[in-house]
Structures are given as structure tokens and as C-alpha cells.
Amino acid sequence: MSSFEPFVMERMMSKFEQSVDYNLSESGVHPMLLSELFADDPGFIEELLATDINYPHVNGIPELRENISRLYEGANPENVLVTVGAIEANYLTVRTLLSAGDEIVIMSPNYMQIWGIAKNHGLNIKTFNLREENGWTPDLEELESIVTPETKMIAVCNPNNPTGRATTLEEIDRIVAIAEKVGAWILADEVYAGAERETDEQTPSFYGLYDRVIAMGSMSKAYGLPGLRIGWAAGPEKTLDDMWARHEYIALSATMLSNKLAALALSPGVRPRIIARTRKYIRDGFPVLKEWMDSHEGVFKIVPPDAAAIAFARYDLDINSTEFVTRLMNEKSVLIVPGDHFGLDNFVRISFGLPHDYLNAALNRIHDLIMEIKGKSATA
Ligand SMILES: Cc1ncc(COP(=O)(O)O)c(C=O)c1O
């Protein structure tokens, strides 16, 4: 068997998220019901019933690609490839544009998929950091100093998982300039764009700022529809065609029904309602989590996230993050994500875009464990 680095966070989530009493490990908001999606157009069900359960267009049905292309200035449907989640789009981007030995520079901390793919396929990995002490601002001096003519790709996650930090326009321009200087591709994972906490302005995309940008989006986070398993890549037509050829080996296509439901969700008449729903969950949920953290004086330190339904909190407890999360799962049946999964111990990632009774009940159980840990360390 070839050597293989598992995707540790997804391994943990896929094994345990369905069996715990409270799942606070997800980064999106509470998922939508199908009936909520149909609320403006109950007749849509008739259209679905008349659907041929055939293969859809392998690169995404035209209506869906049209609706996605409208999200990017200057894009048309040929600039969009629909994939099975953004996870496939990320995979295809790296595997199409890079080969073993190529250098990739990855924003850190990050959803560790790109890092794992890079490891498993023999890429040379460098990282540049978001600095907690500066409110998770990306260290662009560092980026500038490590990018060389050998750099083939810079991978960013904006807004960022796990910190929720959204890159400013000035930072975006600077990252583009650094990439352009050496002709490196930019992989911009933008699955949380639309899930802003404090502003109704969508986080700007890297798309179109430079001719070597692939931007990723998804129905999973900003739209609360992860079960559709629809994501996409937006970029130059020729590169997308090369990615499409690989998509034929891996997934062939997403499903016909998912293509149709995603097209409905992204239609101009429905999309604003879904985005508003997501933002409401985020805006209502964060104060609950923040208040709970504040009530544990001296335990948590947090930079409030700009976007996404997750908070990445530093904690001051005498326990390693994986051990903390394992105990929480085994003893309290609550799942959160340890900072170890992002290479940062003494942090936890907790989701908050959830109904309040569910969120509060889960936080109460985390509180119980914190009290037990504190009690134990006090007597140790
Ligand atoms: C940054 C980031 N990219 C991609 C994904 C995968 O998303 P999808 O459900 O669209 O495959 C996730 C899921 O958590 C994510 O956090």
C-alpha cells in the first residue's frame, strides 16, 4: 500500500458526527429542510417529479452553471465546473495543475485538505501564517519572503477555516501581486463567502483578478445545503476543461437532482433568502457562544470571526486539545474539533450556527467537562 496521510479532521467527523448527542464540529449552519428550499415555489416539486433520473451534464447542468457564473464578475458558464462538493474541486485543482516535486505555499491554519493532498502526492509544502496576535491577519511579509520562482501555487482559504478571518481587499491585491510576480496559480477556497457575520457585503472573490486563479464555492456552508454535495470551481475555461477530464475519472458528475436543487437555490429569486437565513444563524448564534465563553473567566480567548459558523478559541486548561475533544466525545457525547487538527494545540473549533436549545445544551455539557478538568488539576 502506498504511504498515505489521512485527513484527520474528516476521519474524526465521519466516524463520530452521526452518533454523538451534539455535533458542534460542523463549520456550516444548521442545514435547510427541503420544504424550506421550496417555500417560495411549492410548484417546483412537480417539476422535480417529472425529472428524468438520467446522468446530468457531467460538468453541471447549464442552468446551474449560469447561476454560479453570475456570482463572479466577468464569468460566464464556461468558466464554471460543477463538482461533488468543493472538496472535489480542490482536489482536481491541485492534481491538474501540480506534479510531484512542485512547490505549493499554503495559508496556515487552514482546512487541511490541500495540505494532505500535497503530502500524499509528493509536493513541496511551505506555509505562511495568519497571526493570532494581529487578529488572524495574514503575514504577507512572510508570504513575500517564501514565494520564489519555484512556487507553482499559493493556496488560500478566504474566509478562513478555522479562524473565520476574511481577507481584506488590500490583502487580496497583495497576494495576487506576489503570485503574479512568479506566475504562480492561486487556489482560492471561498466556500464561506456569503456567510458573513457583521456585514451584508459578500467577501470579495479572487476570481478574475489575475489569469491564474481558480476560485472554489459550495452549497454546503453559505447555503446550508451540505447534503446536496454540490461545489464548483470557477476559472479559465481551458484549465477547467483539464479538470473536467479528471472529474470524469473520479466522480463523473454530481447527481441530477442535486444539480436541479442547487440551480433553484442559486436562482436570483431564492438565493437572497437563503443567504439571509445563513447570516441570521451566524449572527444569532455567535453571541450565545461568546457569552458562554465569557462566563468561563480566563479560560477562552477568541478573535471574533468575520464569517463562517465557527469560532476558533484558544483555551487555558491543562489538557491537550485532542485529549480534551476525545474526553468530550466519550464522556459527554459532544463533538468539536481539536486545534491539533490544524497544527495548533490549545485551541478548539466550535460551531455556533445552530438552534439555541441545541447549542446551549451542548455548551452545558462542555462546561461540565471544563469543571471536571479544572477540579482535577486543582487537586493535582
Ligand atoms: C475550507 C473548506 N473547503 C472545502 C470544504 C468541503 O466542502 P464541500 O462540502 O463543498 O465538499 C470544507 C468543508 O468543511 C471547507 O471547510
TL;DR?
This protein has 380 residues and is an alpha/beta fold. The chain has helices at residues 8-16, 34-37, 44-49, 62-69, 85-97, 113-120, 140-146, 169-182, 237-250, 256-265, 271-294, 321-332, 356-379, and strands spanning 22-23, 80-83, 103-108, 124-131, 137-138, 151-157, 185-189, 213-218, 231-234, 300-302, 310-315, 334-335, 337-338, 347-351. The radius of gyration is 21 Å and the shape is globular.
What are the key terms here?
single chain; 380 residues; alpha/beta; Aspartate Aminotransferase, domain 1; Aspartate Aminotransferase, domain 2; 2 domains; eight-stranded mixed beta sheet; four-stranded antiparallel beta sheet; 13 helices; 40% helix; binds pyridoxal-5'-phosphate
Oligomer: single chain
Q: What can be said about the biggest beta sheet?
A: 8 strands, mixed
Q: Identify the CATH homologous superfamily of the largest domain.
A: Type I PLP-dependent aspartate aminotransferase-like (Major domain)
Number of helices: 13
The end-to-end span amounts to 45 Å
Question: What's the arrangement of strands in the largest beta sheet?
Answer: 2-9-8-7-6-3-4-5
* CATH structural class of the largest domain: Alpha Beta
The CATH topology of the largest domain is: Aspartate Aminotransferase, domain 2
Listing every helix as H and every strand as E from the N terminus to the C terminus, the arrangement reads HEHHHEHEHEEHEHEEEHHHEEHEEEH
What is the number of independent domains?
A: 2
| Count of strand segments | 14
Mean pLDDT: 97
Second CATH tier, the architecture of the largest domain: 3-Layer(aba) Sandwich
